[in-house]
Design brief:
The structure holds two protein chains of two kinds. Chain A is an all-alpha fold. Chain A has helices at residues 11-19, 22-31, 44-63, 73-82, 87-115, 123-145, 150-161, 170-178, 185-214, 236-261, 291-299, 303-318, 320-323, 335-356, 361-388, 399-403, 409-421, and strands spanning 33-35, 233-235. Chain B is built from five helices and ten strands; from the N terminus they run αααβββααβββββββ. Chain B is of the alpha+beta class. The chains are: A mainly alpha, B alpha+beta.
Chain lengths: 422, 172
């Protein structure tokens, strides 16, 4: 980091900043040097921050009207939808907000994979990000249970039953999770408490995520280390702030389309039937953003093994910085990795589709192949590719390719020095 | 380094170890109520048994009742169903159990209505073995509630139950 000494102009500002350096922090955030070639895929960090804050605000409002007891939960949702002023808007915003949150987080994750943002020296940013992603899945799952519809109830039953696969302690663990012998009121109440808590844990981790980001600085589409600040950077404010805001507006257009024109498109009609422990709906599916993992779970014929493989599919992402052995970050300079990257994208989409289909016949076969390929990509292709792949020549600076090769000698040298120092 | 490695534990080391051990026990004891509060509480446990009137159940019919928040299937089996359950070779079973051991009274089969895979409620009189079929992930059970095909690892569980009289079953 190259933070120059900052001194507030006003006397009060100086008095305050000497005691609590908030103004220094603000100055760091506005002046923070960012690569000048960041494209729109880099705006999703800001979009995700918006999503988190929006979910917390709408969630706190919903909590003021919601009742977390098995007998009243379903009715209180209808009460919010029909009686509470703008309750329908706030609930639809919150429910669709989770889908938009996951849409943004998937783009954010796949952007990292493409441009190698998970690689040294940004491993911790990536790992914190994966913890956030895992907490997001748990939060979304518990939130889905709160309306206490049929999908809520059976999603809770199936997911908590995953733990019954644990040898010897399975039954004890599930009874402990449920607070009973089946999913019931005690389960709902504790899910509600945790659903309220987790977003604040995520908020704390987001602060760590950004802090860890500000140590090495942003990666960029070319994926090279740059000197900060230099001719290759622009200050965060106003350049990136305004770019992020513009992207956020476009994102909000799509968001608003769902909220106002098809608020139930991403939901399941069965969740408008109150939870009934005696009847399982014919076809239960999780929310779309969990489908790839659901497909992986179902593609393994053994119960315990299926659960292990499903958790492994998330864990393999955590250790990704050490599986991807290539020193070159950006896929722009990795012609073979670029192809495998798109194979992976297709594979995850296929898994998602198979997760929504019944687990039988051809669907099951395709899901099994796709599951196998998912692990082959991370455990075999990536480590091997890093060693074998012939990468293209990486420019010495962001400016270099634009100015045409070696015309900017000083900058090229700066970069070489910086790399040596690292 | 090597000198301090060889150093004998002195009184201070002993005090530190003892304090840490006592502290760990204390923290564990204090944490236990925080963990145990999530286990089934007294009011949930109090609903431990349910009595069911089965006088209206005709041969071939089955009813579903709620016990401890879980569905329980009570099926009055036809002679044909009993025969098909009893004629199965145990070697063909994923979880070998004799039908004689599962149904004390051959006419009445009492099982938990919970798929042993991930807890869905199987549908009656469906599936390849004319017993139950779980719609969630495709497990097939036979007329004795034994797993025959699909991802479920074990047979449908038999709860503790007894015949109070000819028309009443007490579950739990």
């Amino acid at each position: 980091m190259s933070d120059h000494e900052y001194a507030p102009k006003s006397k009060f500002g100086k008095w305050f900043n000497d005691r609590l350096p908030l103004l220094t922090l603000r100055n760091h955030l506005t002046d923070y040097p960012t690569p000048k070639n960041l494209n729109y895929w880099w705006t999703f960090g800001a979009i995700l921050t918006f999503c988190l804050v929006a979910q917390i605000i709408t969630g706190i409002i919903l909590a003021m009207h919601y009742v977390a007891t098995a007998g009243l939960a379903f009715e209180s949702i209808e009460h919010i939808m029909r009686d509470v002023n703008y309750g329908w808007l706030i609930r639809y915003f919150h429910a669709n907000g989770s889908s938009m949150f996951f849409l943004a987080v998937y783009i954010h994750i796949f952007r990292s994979l493409y441009y190698g943002s998970h690689k040294s020296p940004r491993e911790l940013i990536w790992i914190i990000g994966m913890i956030i992603y895992f907490l997001m899945m748990m939060t979304a799952f518990m939130g889905y249970v709160l309306p206490w519809g049929q999908m809520s109830f059976w999603a809770a039953t199936v997911i908590t039953n995953l733990f019954s696969a644990v040898p010897f302690f399975g039954e004890g663990i599930t009874n402990w999770l449920w607070g009973g012998f089946a999913v019931d009121s005690p389960t709902l109440t504790r899910f509600y408490a945790l659903h309220y808590l987790f977003p604040f844990l995520i908020l704390g981790l987001v602060i760590l995520h950004i802090w860890a980001l500000h140590i090495p600085g942003n990666n960029n589409p070319v994926g090279i280390d740059i000197k900060q600040p230099s001719k290759d950077t622009v200050p965060f404010h106003p350049y990136i702030v305004l770019k992020d805001l513009f992207a956020l507006l476009i994102f909000l257009l799509i968001f608003a389309f769902f909220v106002f024109y098809s608020p139930n498109l991403l939901g399941h009609p069965d969740n408008y039937i109150e939870a009934n422990p005696l009847v399982t709906p014919d076809h239960i599916v999780p929310e779309w953003y969990l489908l790839p993992f659901y497909a992986i779970l179902r593609s393994i014929p053994d119960k315990l093994l299926g659960v292990i493989v499903m958790f492994a599919s998330i864990f393999v992402l955590v250790i990704l910085p050490w599986l991807d052995t290539s020193k070159v970050r950006s896929a722009i300079f990795r012609p073979i990795y670029k192809q495998f990257y798109w194979f992976l994208v297709a594979d995850v989409i296929i898994l998602g589709y198979m997760g929504a289909m019944p687990a039988e016949g051809t669907y099951l076969l395709i899901a099994r192949v796709a599951t196998a390929y998912y692990f082959i990509h991370f455990l075999i292709i990536l480590p091997f590719l890093g060693i074998k792949e012939k990468t293209l020549e990486v420019p010495l600076s962001i400016t270099e390719p634009v100015l045409g090769g070696t015309s900017n000698q000083t900058m090229a040298k700066d970069n070489l020095n910086l790399r040596d120092n690292l | 380094m090597s000198e301090s490695d060889k150093k004998k534990p002195n009184r201070r080391d002993f005090i530190i170890t003892a304090t840490t051990a006592a502290g760990a026990v204390g923290v564990g004891a204090a944490a236990w109520p925080l963990i145990d509060q999530m286990n089934p509480d007294a009011s949930v446990k109090a609903l431990a048994s349910t009595e069911v009137d089965i006088s209206g159940v005709q041969s071939g019919q089955s009813i579903t009742v709620l016990w401890r928040g879980k569905p329980v299937f009570i099926k009055r089996r036809t002679q044909e169903e009993i025969d098909s359950a009893r004629s199965v070779d145990l070697k063909d079973l994923k979880h070998p159990e004799k039908d004689e051991d599962r149904a004390k009274n051959p006419e009445w089969l009492v099982t938990l209505g919970i798929c042993t895979h991930l807890g869905c409620v199987p549908l009656a009189d469906k599936g390849d073995y004319k017993g139950w079929f779980c719609p969630c992930h495709g497990s097939h059970y036979d007329t004795s509630g034994r797993i025959r095909k699909g991802p479920a690892p074990t047979n449908l569980e038999i709860p503790k139950y007894e015949f109070v009289d000819n028309n009443t079953i007490k579950i739990g």
